[in-house]
Amino acid sequence: MLKQFILIVALLMCTARADALEYTDVYYNPAESGWGVFLVQSDTTQFLALFIYGTDNKPTWYTATLKQDVAGNYNGSLTATTGTYFGLPWNSAQLTVASVGTISFVPNDIYSATVTYALTGGPTVTKTVQRQTLTAYQLAGNYSGSISGTVSGCANAGDNDAHVRGRYGLTVTQTADTASTLTFTFTDTAHVGLVFMVTGSLTHLGRLYKLTGQFSATSPDENIPAHAATIDSYHPTGQGIEGRLTTTLGDGCTLSLPFSAVRNN
Fold first, then answer.
1. Are 215 and 227 in contact (CB under 8 A)?
2. Range of the domain at 43
3. Residue at 20 is within a domain
4. End of a domain among 97, 131, 165?
5. In the listed set 99, 131, 163, which residue is the last one of a domain according to the structure?
6. Tens digit of pLDDT per residue, the chain (265 long)?
7. Is there a domain that residue 235 lies in?
8. Which among 77, 126, 130, 250 is most buried, taking Cβ atoms within 10 Å?
9. For 55, how many CA atoms within 13 A lie in the half-sphere containing its CB?
10. In angstroms, rounded to a whole number, what is the distance separating the alpha carbons of residues 148 and 12?
11. How many domains does the chain have?
12. How far apart are the first and last CA of the chain?
């Protein structure tokens, strides 16, 4: 049965590109609300701005440009700047830029990280931070998109597939900021009649949601009963929605299926 299901969802071979994960957001420590980190990412480069407090307990800030290393962590120099009082016309001659230490951003997962910064001649600070939620997103709607992922870890190695692809219409329902259901109805000719359904509770962290719930599937040939599943990095985009669906089926097979879709007007 599982082999038939995998044959249903497996399509064309393609060359995968390893992209950096996206960490752009506002980060803070919930137990220490009042300071934090602004982070904007461009591919494998991050720009960070720390809003913290000096030895006089007054607001101060540092910036840094970090580069990704082979382990997927980010490292760079910590910079302090001074300039013209904001109430006066900008005078570029008053700008000073000084390297004052080092900083690293080490992801714990897609939602949280450990930030360590060391000031030259001063303290080394290590903090755990997480994405800071601002407002709820409206995810409900009808979309059209595609899915591309892998089947791995199968006891029968022949069931593994490094290239799973398909196109679908997606219907999303949402209950406040607490729950969501996604129904993927596949539309390409190789998958006629195949339907994925994922339903569960939402955890909202910054720009992202995590959905924890159940995955099930139906097709003309078989039904796949409910299995535990998650959707990570679940969030709206400028024109639609995206995320990563993960579930483990029989025979130890793990489906890891990133998906993206545009909203139907």
1. yes
2. 25-131
3. no
4. 131
5. 131
6. 444 444 444 432 333 334 568 999 999 999 999 999 999 999 999 999 999 999 999 999 999 999 999 999 999 999 999 999 999 999 999 999 999 999 999 999 999 999 999 999 999 999 999 999 999 999 999 999 999 899 999 998 888 888 888 999 999 999 999 999 999 999 988 788 899 999 999 999 999 999 999 999 998 887 888 889 999 999 999 999 999 999 998 788 999 999 999 999 7
7. yes
8. 130
9. 3
10. 10
11. 2
12. 38
For residue 11, give both structure tokens.
């399509």
Q: Could you give the CA distance from residue 33 to residue 200 in angstroms, rounded to a whole number?
A: 29
Q: Do 167 and 125 sit in the same domain of this protein? A: no
Name the amino acid, one letter, at 34: G
